[in-house]
Design goal:
453 residues; four-stranded parallel β-sheet
Amino acid sequence: MNLRANSLEGSASVLEGCGSLVQLDISSNNFSGPLPASTLWDTLTTYQASYNIFSGVFPCNLCHNAQILETLDISHNRIQGQIPNTITLLSGLKTLILGSNEFTGTLTENVYYLPGLKVLDISNNKFVGTIPTAIEYPFGLTTADFSNNTGFTGILPPQTGFLYNLQKVRITGTSMSCSGVITPYNVTTNASCNDPTRCTTPSLISGESHPGAVCSDEELLPCFLRFSNDSMPREDSSNMRCKFIMRKPPEQAKIDCAQRSGAYTLGNSAQYLPDIVKDSTEQSWIIHPSYYQYRGCTCLQGYSPVWDANGTIMKCVEAPAVDKRTVIMVSAISAVAGLALLAVLVLLAQLYLRTRPKWLRERIMQAKRRQGAPKCTKPGDKVRVSIVVTDVKDFSALTGQYHELMMKAMGAHNNILRKACHTHAGYVMDQEGDSWTVAFHEPQDAVAFSLQV
């Protein structure tokens, strides 16, 4: 039964009388009330109810009666309470998407005992607690999104390294830290960012830190991960660039994970880490810099770092303007130079009009980046914006025919677009698969972006 993207509203309980359902898709409607669940749904394999206004708690009846369910997506609703331990009865579950609800409490460890789980998305909720070592058990897990749960604390367990098939992990907008300190951060949304769900500013709740909260170089990342030599500007409005995170070579990971101590070690189990590591373009470790205390991060040009809490929090603030005395000195020297210098300036002006040097364009771009995303300053104002939408021709067909090659190509594709967005002061409005929607202050910036990519 497919009722997706209509204007249906009210209770969906009438669907509980439908027997022999195999697939149910009621996404993108205006259904309200509790999520439907029926004792007749023992053949149900797909349950999609995202983008509605369902409320109440997770339906336990679904766990008892739909035990061959493979896909469960109830994201973007108003579901509250905790995830029941009986979720382990859904032993065939492969995709579990609970994002953008109002779930609270600790995430039951039983979620990690779902043997076939491939996609886990619990982002944008109110979960608390730590990620347990049981995360190592769903060997087929490819995607895990824990972002925007400010109650998550502690470290990313080293047992995550056993998950060979992982392609994307997102840990942003949480209170997790390499130091393992419980609830050290208060995460607030940065209002100047064009995507508030991804742009957050962490600050210590107490306003201060202590030596025990400062991580050593070995503790910054889980023992099987490392920083790459390359860095890219962050996609938020932090005005900083940080290094990529990637897996270590297998032998090095086994040595490091065996030698560390406490919660950071795998001990003798380190020998069972995967012998073959996926290429960096096939894995994406999106971990907020607050987790590794901003080590290896630098401010963009025109901004200066300000450190707080014993050097564990960094913010990039706009660098002060040129001192007035310097301006006066330069003016005096220019006056003494006289006509000769004036002639040079005229020649430089002509050169500027003809070539528009790259350094000048970069300064213009810096000014536009400081302005933030194109937006009105007050109601009634008008703002000029140019929008570019990109798309890869025949992406779906090529992905179906050359899946592994296209996944690598998409990694390179996304890196190229991120660099071009930064170069031309673009702001990503939306990204879905191979399609990007980017906004620019000026039409010429949009054209330059298009020519670059």
